[in-house]
Amino acid sequence: MVDFTLWDILRNLLLAARWTLLLSLIAFVGGGVVGLALLVLRLAGRPGTGRIVGAYVQLFQGTPLLMQLFLLYFGLALAGLNTSAWLAAAVALTLYASAYLTEIWRGCVAAIPRGQWEASASLALSFGQQLRHVILPQALRIAVAPTVGFLVQVVKATALASVIGFVELTKAGGLIANVSYEPLLTYGCVALLYFAICFPISQLARLLERTLR
Amino acid sequence: MSATLQAAPAPTAGPVPRGDAGAHTQVGAPILRITALRKSYGAHEVLKGIDLDVARGEVVAIIGKSGSGKSTLLRCINGLEVFQQGSLIVDGRHLLHDNPKAMRELRQGVGMIFQSFNLFPHLTVGQNVMLAPHLVKRRGRAQNAERARALLARVGLSEKFDAMPDKLSGGQQQRVAIARALAMDPAIMLCDEITSALDPELVGEVLRVVESLADEGMTLLMVTHEMSFARKVADRVIFMHQGLVHEMGPPETIFGAPQTPELRQFLGLMEGSAA
Amino acid sequence: MSFDFLSILAQWPLLLRGAAWTIGLTALATLFGATLAVAGAWARSQGPRPLGWLVGAYVELIRNTPFIVQLFFIFFGLPELGIRLSPGVASVCAMTINLGAYATEILRAGIEATPRGQIEAAQSLALSRTQIFLHVVLPPALKTVWPALVSQIVIVMLGSAVCSQISTEELSYATNLIQSRNFRAFEAYIVGTLGYLGLAILLRHLLNWAGPRFLFGR
């Protein structure tokens, strides 16, 4: 048995944390792009498309992320794609983030007074112009804080990628706990590392909420 | 009506009542005695040494400009505001801020009605009236309900027992607030500008209830902008100015023959705004 | 490619058992978590200062770490201290602690929105601090934050899927068991996922119905 020092544990966890950060970033950015597209679809489209996007959101918010991950993992394999845990996790988390972000942003757009739509429409702006020049700039201001806040949720969500075998912070913690026979210390360190990533983002979101209101 | 609503006979000979007190006054210890009371917010002194005795059954109106300290004085009497110096005795009980038990005993004897009604929005009208007697006085369920119904009838709202507060007009809400305060059988009632938040047409119904309380011998201390009401109902009027009792006397004197230029100016302003 | 859902649905007793576990875990966690949250919100808004800070630290710690790590810490970590919990108990503990933190913060927001006049009216009616909190402050606060609280309870229910990782026999565990028997993984997870969706909708309706009736009046 190898003796693990605290530094050994921490060093290995820190290395694994890079993957947590990378996966978070991919899911957040990917989710943002998809989410924005869904938002425009929802605002512009006929009632039909709006309802479909609504159902999409309900589906992702009404089922466990864990099940979504498994579904994608096995679904991609079924579709003949060479599935890696890495790909399944990235896709699943992107879709998951897109559903939440599109819903957050829809709320921000809905918070813009009706009069703004009416005023810009009466100035003969097209729908695209209304969005681009009048609505989104105002909505963006309210959206910043909850969006940053959601990043915390994404970072925590990446921990579930460990379940399908992707070696990020949580999975690395499990592996180290098994070989070091120090599960308490290891999982304590894992938790603290997550805290070290998430807490500053939470505080930033709180600060933004105060200053941008 | 409950026994406490009637002026209690004086058990012992107390200090001689003030000469300027009105018809309700009976011989006995003052129900409220305020001595050299000072209160400040930080460096700003709001009350600069108030001395005031109120006899049992007396109706006292406090008038004055906003910022003169009249609401603060009222709020000191049941400990909603903490004062730094002086003493305050209600019905023989010293007001002790840092003793929660003593505060609760004192508050049982002091009813308060607020400008903004402050009914509990999640409780029905009946539950609003019954909450404190149930929790504090441990009054039995049946007796409590019976009493609440009687009090609501007393303020003309017997049919609203099961209504939610937000379904009532402002005047009705304020009358419920009066019934709620009465349910604790207070020895003295504090009214803090209770008609200021009401639409003009609703003021009358609330003032009529207050007047009937005065007629039944309830000790009343009210901060008010309703000068004609003060003149009609009060035994004594106190004019506060810059944190002090500036002038005090029977309504005829205060309104008919004001002594100080400040009071004259204040009454002139009130008349001007009323016109 | 062909799908075979019938062979999954044929395993309905397993699925039902799993769903029952999920419901049970959620019910217990909601009960304990909500109680914890009421105490936590009280401590945060009007309790003694040091206790307020302690609760604040607990809330931040839980909200900024993943649930699965909390669960593993309790199930794999605590035995090192001699605290050995069965999967079911560890799951309820983790869910309770998790919900408690989020709900504390939600409730606190509702409590701090109480108009000052409400409290003054209650004070002038001689109610004690505890009575004011329980009878005047808490019910309207619960009513205000109930939608947020319901969402959080649903999130915790969905999150409980992770408890299968410590072999708690709830719905996702049952799903995994079925797919390991008949190798119809995709179909199994479709059925399991729809099961969760159904439970989430049911739970939301139940709580929206029950809250006004039993907790805070009309």
Automatic annotation (TrEMBL), chain A:
Major location (coarse): membrane
InterPro entries linked: AA_ABC_transptr_permease_3TM, ArtM/GltK/GlnP/TcyL/YhdX-like, MetI-like, MetI-like_sf
Record's bilayer topology term: Multi-pass membrane protein
UniProt source species: Methylobacterium gregans
Highest rank taxon of the organism: Bacteria
Subcellular location as annotated: Cell inner membrane; Cell membrane
Assigned GO CC terms: ATP-binding cassette (ABC) transporter complex
Biological process terms in GO annotation: amino acid transport
Transmembrane segments: 20-41, 142-164, 184-208
Protein name: L-cystine transport system permease protein YecS
Pfam families listed in its UniProt record: BPD_transp_1
A GO molecular function held by the record: transmembrane transporter activity
Residue span, ABC transmembrane type-1 domain: 17-205
Keywords, ordered alphabetically: Cell membrane, Membrane, Transmembrane, Transmembrane helix, Transport
Stated family: Belongs to the binding-protein-dependent transport system permease family. HisMQ subfamily.
UniProtKB/TrEMBL annotation, chain B:
Subcellular location: Cell membrane
Region (Disordered) residue spans: 1-22
GO cellular component, as recorded: plasma membrane
Protein's UniProt keywords contain Membrane: yes
One GO MF term: ATP hydrolysis activity
Protein keywords: Amino-acid transport, ATP-binding, Cell membrane, Membrane, Nucleotide-binding, Transport
Signal peptide: none
Ranges where the ABC transporter domain occurs: 32-267
Protein family (similarity comment): Belongs to the ABC transporter superfamily.
Protein name per its UniProtKB record: Glutamine transport ATP-binding protein GlnQ
Source organism: Methylobacterium gregans
UniProtKB/TrEMBL annotation, chain C:
Molecular function via GO: transmembrane transporter activity
Top-rank lineage group of the source organism: Bacteria
Record's bilayer topology term: Multi-pass membrane protein
One GO CC annotation: ATP-binding cassette (ABC) transporter complex
Sequence intervals crossing the membrane: 20-43, 55-78, 145-167, 188-207
Compartment list: Cell inner membrane; Cell membrane
Domain ABC transmembrane type-1: 19-207
UniProt record, GO biological process: amino acid transport
Pfam families on file: BPD_transp_1
Keyword annotations: Cell membrane, Membrane, Transmembrane, Transmembrane helix, Transport
Similarity field: Belongs to the binding-protein-dependent transport system permease family. HisMQ subfamily.
Protein name: ABC transmembrane type-1 domain-containing protein
